[in-house]
Amino acid sequence: MKNNFLKELFANATPLTKLVFTLFVMFTSYLLVTFITILIIIPVYSFSIEEINILLKEDLLEADISMLRFFQISQSFGLFLIPAILLNYILFHAGEDYMSTGNFPSLLLMLMVLLTLIFSVPIINFLIDWNSSLKLPEWINFLEDKLQQMEIERNQLTERMTDNMQTSDYFFNLLIIAIIPAIGEEFLFRGILQRIFSQWIKNIHIAIGLAAIIFSAFHLQFYGFLPRLVLGVYFGYLFYWSKNIWLAVWAHFLNNAFAISLIYIAANGWFSESDILKGGTITSLLQVLLSIFITSLLVILTSKYFRNTNKGN
After folding, report:
1. Is the model's pLDDT at 280 over the cut of 70?
2. Do 180 and 81 meet the contact criterion of CB atoms below 8 Å apart?
3. Distance between CA 101 and CA 248 in Å, rounded?
4. pLDDT tens-digit readout, 44-59
5. CA 119 remoteness from chain centre
6. Which of 116, 127, 106, 123 is nearest to 299 (CA)?
7. What is the pTM of this model?
8. What is the spatial distance between Cα 37 and Cα 243, in angstroms, rounded to a whole number?
């Protein structure tokens, strides 16, 4: 009875109330999961509470790699996946339950998404190069310094997670960096936030854009903001067209898996790892234009596929 009351209370609430409640659930879930994670780590790694506190405040990157991976998993669950599952049940009526909408995407759709991401690589590389060259106004230099430091820390985390990657590490990193984040982040940003914004603003295109902006900003990487924003918009339209969260999850997984796979290939000496981590070699204008043309064509075909499918239902 209490659960039904809570659901009716928030499912009929205003979008602003839903948004505030979403932030509350995310914050609470993150704190609880982090607390449980620390309770597990203390006996497993024979750490005292003081040592854990110092590690978290000063330099988590120096932690044992297995501990670092455990923190990454707990963060994905605590901040994204658990809140998304709870919020989907509480904030929306039964007919709006995106998790039970449809089946997994068809092989044709999965292939179209794969091709779209492959052909969009020159666009993404161009955006990475352009974004990295952007400078903030002088009067907020302090913010730019902070953003640069955060960028360095995020890159150090990636390097720590993927350093000397063997085959077993590769599959473990796929789980931690590709599979779990793809599910958790899509469930939250597209499955929850995008739907809240669409209820609030009544314009799906703005809702997709807002969810993508928050999605990109949440990664705390200013110099990767634009390419991640573009990807977030693409994921948002996949969810909107298909009404199936798993297609967006598949696209998100592919994007992350590409990055991990390239680093793994670089570790085996096929390519320069430094080039890969920086987004590859400088992309020519012809490559970018061709990429825009083919990627746009694939996106249009995907959109038309769903319009034709919906007409037939």
Report:
1. no
2. yes
3. 13
4. 877 777 767 666 665 6
5. 20
6. 116
7. 0.88
8. 34
